[in-house]
Amino acid sequence: MKRAIHIVGGGMAGSEAAWQAAQAGVPVVLHEMRPKVGTFAHRTGNLAEMVCSNSFRSDDDENNAVGLLHWEMRAAGGLIISTADTHALPAGGALAVDREAFAEEITRRLRSHPLIEVVEDEIAALPGPDAGPVIIATGPLTSGALAEAIAAETGQQSLAFFDAIAPIVHFNSVDMDVAWMQSRYDKGETEEERTAYLNCPMTREQYDTFIDALLDAEKTEFRPGETAQYFDGCLPIEVMAERGRETLRHGPMKPVGLTNSHKPDEKACAVVQLRRDNALGTLYNIVGFQTKMKHGAQTRVFRMIPGLENARFARLGGIHRNTFINSPTLLDAQMRLRSKPHIRFAGQITGVEGYVESAAMGLLAGRMAAAEVQGRTLPQVPEDTAMGALLSHITGGADAKTFQPMNVNFGLFRPVEARGGRKGRKERYKIYTDRAKAAWREWLTSFEPQPATAD
Prior knowledge:
The protein has helices at residues 12-23, 65-75, 79-86, 99-111, 144-154, 191-194, 204-216, 237-242, 295-302, 327-330, 355-373, 386-397, 421-444; strands spanning 5-8, 28-31, 55-58, 88-89, 94-97, 116-119, 134-136, 159-165, 168-170, 180-181, 197-202, 229-230, 270-276, 283-286, 313-315, 318-324, 336-337, 340-345. With 455 residues, it is of the alpha/beta class.
């Protein structure tokens, strides 16, 4: 029997890595400390639990780098993206999912795979070479003991930043005489998609009062000596408000592309949007409203939003610490730790940000580790693909001195030429995605994956 790959962490990256390796015919032991050891953010013991948003963001594979990453994962038989497709919810061009059904199916498929053993235990130290190939995919909430072991091995303190979580509201507590259903710019091919978001309008006076309350609200304090910065893609709303009173109006509360069906002639100063969080449509999360306000302050401030005066919260927001390594100095092109090459890293701990990006790095790590067990080395992932652009960024493309978590974006790609202006930008995006798809297809067909067998 082939030597097993040990994967530490059952989040997006670990789950995808386990699936890819097992589908290639290599046994996997997937270590997940939950539910025996809980975290602040997780609520269940399911694998691939979504703790922040329920959205995989844009699904546009012609004009958006995230959508392109979706396409590449589908082409590679990705578990995370295929399960997301199965449990997709209307989201006006984005790929949002019923988070509970999604995690339950991931858990079932991994636990039932003949080549995957799921072990509920906490790994507190870096496994030695005798353990065989290892993938560390512990995500944003790496346990303290393992984080210390990683820091000791790398000779430096892990970098850190803070992630925040948005609250979730019961739909039947929303005042629909005030709120209305509409996706921004009526985006979507079906009526369900075009009405995928709940919208709560604010006048200028209501907006100013809301900002004042947000700035004055009691916030969660960090522990003494605990310092880190925020990731710009997941800023708490009160931090955005501190950067300027108009910041939220030009961010998650922008009123453009929306018409109030109750008062079509009135232009809102700001609009709070909520996105469906489950298939039943009974829960909605407040889009972009990550927060570090204390729970009592949250209920008071969020009930100031028109339409949410009597809101009942299924979950309030929160904040948690997130660690990641300085990958450009520590990892080689095969995602291996240079000082211990039997260990690979994958997911958010490598400095990619987002569910999709984390799963994508898990996909690559799982395939690379499986190939290594089989005595092969995968060809270099093309840098013109979304996968390759991210991989290049974390394994040497980024400046190690200023390395920060990064979502996939066209700025990571080799430049292309296009005509100027807005039309030129769309043309350029299409060139990026066409080029990436061709390169990804060629890469996928350049080697023959081994069949999944139990021996």
